[in-house]
Amino acid sequence: MADALSFAETLRRRRSSGESVSFVTLCSENPNSVGLPGVADPRPDYAWKKRRP
Predict the structure, then answer these.
(1) Tens digit of pLDDT for each residue in 30-45?
(2) Which residues on neighbouring strands pair with residue 35, listed in sequence order?
(3) What is d(CA 19, CA 11) in angstroms, rounded to the nearest whole number?
(4) What pLDDT does residue 14 have?
(5) For 50, left (φ over 0), alpha (ψ -120 to 50), or beta?
(6) Residues 26, 7 contacting (CB under 8 angstroms)
(7) Cα separation, 1 vs 11, whole angstroms
(8) Alpha-helical regions (H) of the chain
(9) 9-21 pLDDT per residue, tens
C-alpha cells in the first residue's frame, strides 16, 4: 500500500508541476457496510409463484 501511495503522490507532483498526467484510482467496498454479500433470502411471508397474472 505504501508503494501505491508513493506512486500516486509522484503522479500528483508531476501534474502539479504542469505535466499532463491522467490516472485512475481503485477502491474496494466494505463488504460489511450493507448487509450480507450475495443474494439475500426473501422475507418469510413472501408468496412465490412461478407465474403471476
Answers:
(1) 665 555 556 666 777 8
(2) 33
(3) 9
(4) 92
(5) alpha
(6) no
(7) 15
(8) 2-16
(9) 998 899 899 998 8
